[in-house]
Each structure stands twice: as C-alpha cells, then as structure tokens.
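User: quick one, sequence for these tokens?
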C-alpha cells in the first residue's frame, strides 16, 4: 500500500464519535494509505495488527467458506473494518479485506484502538451498537442463505446495496460489481447468479449496463425480498 497523508479527522466512524480533545492523539497514532484496486489489505489468518477506516473508496470484507468466497459486507466512506480481529482469545483476523477500487485508508494499531474505546464513552457505545447491527445483519443473511431462493437473495442484495451506496442520475447503483462478487455476496454460484439476473431482466425488474445494476421495479424487488 502506498502511504498517503490525507485525513480530515472528521469523516471516519472513530473521529465522528470521539472527543475533540482526543483528536490530537489520533493524529499522532494514525497512518494513512492508498490501496490499489484488487489489493488485499487484510488476509484471513494474519496476526491482528490494528483496525482500518475507509476515507474514500470501497472495500469488500470476505472470508473463505469451504472452497468458496463469501462476501460479508462492503465498507465504503467512513466505515470500519478489521474490528472482527478484536478478541480475548483469537489473535488472527477471521476475515479478509480487498479494495474494489483505488481506496484511501486510515489505520490505527490495535492497542491505541483499545485505549480509544476506554477513553471515549460515546465511541464505545457507538461501536457496541455497530457490533449489534452487524450481528443482526449476519444472522439475517444466514437465514436467507438457508431459506430464501437465489432470486430472493439477489433482490435483497440489490435493495441493500441501493440503501448503502445510493443510485446515480440514471438509476444505477453507485457501485460497479462483477457477477463473481455478486455471487459471493449472495452465497450462490456464478452460473446461478448469471441465470437469475437474466430472469430479473426479462421480468423488467432491473437493468444492467456492464457491471452496473439499475432498478426498474422497486416494488417487484421488494416483493421478492420478502418471500
């Protein structure tokens, strides 16, 4: 990763919730980097060294599930990742993280991050709520994998990505996603996702332009996502 000094101490999850008096400490401990598209930032099984925040760009957080990759979530502007490595009994990262585009990152080492939690009550509470929301989302995703059709899971994924990244002026997701990554995010094979995407296209629920996905019928996708 290439070093980068840009950071406004305002945008990331940590800076937004910590005391302003604590910001000079963050400034002296943080390190900023730029990761290229496709660059692995964290590798599953590596020793835990710290926590990352996305200044700008997009990162996929993923792990191996047997011989397949499963994308757990996407981290974009201001988001945290690497926090799953915080544990009283595990000293390695249980996930990998890869840049999907040129991404600016802020890194803080694990000991300083733990100190920040102890000193900043609002940040500690915000982090607790984030863990709770992430657990809820993980449980829902596992339920969907077990009980929902691939078409329903695709509908859930597209609507969720719309909520996270928004739409551009043409109605496309502000995220270019390969079919392989979409398959890894929905827990399906590439072939099944390709076939199911064609079904959604034929039913005029979505439109596709290269790696971009647009929404034509939100009500139809919502109906699929509830089955």
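Assistant:
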């Amino acid at each position: 990763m290439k070093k980068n000094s840009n950071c406004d101490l305002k945008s990331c999850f940590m800076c937004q919730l910590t005391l302003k008096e604590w910001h000079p400490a963050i400034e002296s401990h943080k390190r900023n980097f730029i990761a290229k598209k496709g660059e692995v930032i964290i590798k599953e099984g590596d020793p835990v060294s710290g926590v990352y925040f996305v200044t700008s760009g997009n990162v996929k957080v993923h792990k191996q599930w047997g011989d397949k990759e499963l994308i757990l979530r996407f981290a974009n502007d201001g988001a945290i990742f690497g926090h799953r490595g915080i544990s009283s009994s595990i000293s390695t990262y249980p996930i990998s993280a890869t840049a999907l585009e040129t991404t600016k990152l802020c890194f803080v080492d694990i000991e300083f991050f733990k100190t920040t939690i102890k000193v900043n009550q609002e940040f500690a509470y915000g982090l607790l709520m984030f863990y709770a929301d992430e657990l809820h989302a993980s449980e829902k995703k596992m339920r969907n994998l077990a009980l929902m059709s691939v078409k329903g899971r695709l509908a859930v994924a597209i609507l969720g990505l719309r909520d996270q990244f928004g739409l551009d002026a043409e109605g496309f997701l502000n995220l270019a996603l390969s079919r392989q990554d979409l398959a890894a995010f929905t827990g399906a094979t590439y072939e099944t996702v390709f076939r199911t995407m064609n079904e959604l296209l034929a039913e005029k629920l979505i439109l596709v332009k290269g790696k971009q996905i647009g929404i034509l019928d939100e009500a139809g996708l919502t109906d699929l996502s509830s089955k």
